[in-house]
Write a structure and sequence with these properties.
Residues 23-164 form the N-acetyltransferase domain. The protein is α+β, with helices and mostly antiparallel strands and 171 residues long. It has a single domain (5-162), classed as Gcn5-related N-acetyltransferase (GNAT) (Aminopeptidase, 3-Layer(aba) Sandwich). It is 34% helix and 35% strand. The protein has helices at 15-29, 36-46, 49-59, 101-112, 128-136, and strands at 5-9, 62-68, 71-81, 84-92, 118-124, 140-149, 152-162. It has a seven-stranded mixed sheet with strand order 1-2-3-4-5-7-6, with helices on both faces. The longest helix is centred in the first third of the chain and has 15 residues, at 15-29.
Length: 171
């Protein structure tokens, strides 16, 4: 990767950029879990601009985009619960994985909400690449949770990382 990567916080009036990036990355990433006929509706519901704007205004959610050169290649969505940052979406285009962009996005969320005690990221249990990324980044599996989205049922890992790693795991 010859161009330097940058991560920026997305303001309300640029939320469509997060949604557009999700339409590209999220759909490719989940094509084996969501039926093709349901994909557009699923992404439209998950990344509904009105809901995203309400979450930012009323619940303090934040979105971040990673850019390499002039191309947006990844995004993260996060919010604060007490002194814990919860990362609900973290996606990087396949061709740009392995260059530290995921770590840059996690760090952007951490810095945005600083000071924070710990980080939590939700990862689909069967998504081995994402689980491995989190483990390599110092997260540990804290527990499993079940969720449903329309007709689809998922099992996710709640993965946890203390900012001060000497503290115990209690996510």
């Amino acid at each position: 990767m010859s161009n330097p990567a940058q991560v920026r916080t997305i303001p309300l009036d640029e939320l469509d950029e997060v949604r557009d990036l999700a339409m590209t990355i999220w759909t490719k990433h989940h094509r084996s879990t969501i039926a093709p006929l349901d994909m557009d509706e699923t992404v439209a519901a998950l990344f509904d601009l009105d809901q995203m704007e309400e979450d930012m205004r009323e619940r303090g959610h934040a979105h971040f985009i990673a850019r390499v050169g002039r191309v947006d290649v990844g995004f993260a969505s996060a919010h604060l619960e007490g002194s814990r940052v919860v990362i609900t979406h973290l996606y990087v285009m396949g061709d740009f994985r392995g260059f530290g962009l995921g770590k840059m996005l996690v760090r952007a969320a951490q810095d945005h909400f600083a000071p924070v005690r710990d980080l939590v990221i939700l990862v689909h249990k069967g998504d081995n690449g994402s689980v491995d990324f989190c483990l390599r980044s110092g997260f540990a599996v804290a527990r499993e949770i079940s969720s449903e989205f329309g007709q689809y049922a998922f099992t996710d890992y709640v993965m946890h990382k203390y900012i001060n790693p000497s503290q115990m795991l209690t996510a």
